[in-house]
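Issue 218. Parser rejects a valid record. Input:
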Amino acid sequence: MTNNWITIFDNTQEARIVYVSESITDSTSWEPEEVIGREAYDLFHPGDHKSLRKVHLANVYNEKMSSMVSYRFLTKSGSYIRVETITHYCHDVIIGSNYLYDPDSADHKARANSVDEVFVCRPDGSLQLAGAWNDRQEQISLSLEKVWNKKDHRIILTQERRFCLILNRFAEAMNIVYVSKMAAELVSLDIEKAIGMPFIKFVQAKDLPSLLSQIDLVREHDMVVRLRFDWVIDKEKGLSEPVEAILSSTDDGFVMVFRLAPRLFMD
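Output the parser choked on:
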């Protein structure tokens, strides 16, 4: 039995579920097809809705690479379990790596120490900021309270282009099992042909040892790491693109979100 799973949401204010991995059944008794297409808030405790909407909208607006929030999740029996979700914002979708909440576990502490922000939905309906690496508390509070401009249920803003992958964590080559559409634009990836291909095929040999060692850390501790390497576009022509990625892990696969690495030229 596993205690974690992957969810992909659209980036509307309803956070509609577009994908969920099979291990959700072990923890909640829901089958994937029973929750795909539903608004995520249907599965959250009503007392947590206000806090989760704040976190969700702030993640979309601020395009957070990694934040984590714990809250109450509805099981098929009608009871609630407490889970924590690492959220990765990825342009047109939001990916969540979900875990049963155990604040005393080493894996929880590893996750909390490696994400940008940690939030806790408290039983009284309030939202607690339990940790933050990059932003001051006052900046985060202002972001959570901001009123966003929306059109057709989507927040209006200029978005950084990103793509995401889900990889088979049990295969040595870490074959690709899911890829989002933006990969075609950013790294010229053929979306249909990419499914089943080895991820390591797209990593230059010079980057592979360092990347594999960091992936091993994620595999062992379910923590979050940041990666930077050259994505191979065409090996024969010597074409590649520097990318940055953030990586988290569940029993159903590795979750990676990519963006093009910034390029600075100094005189």
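Fixed in the parser; the record now loads. Helices lie at 24-28, 32-35, 49-62, 106-112, 137-145, 182-187, 191-194, 208-221.
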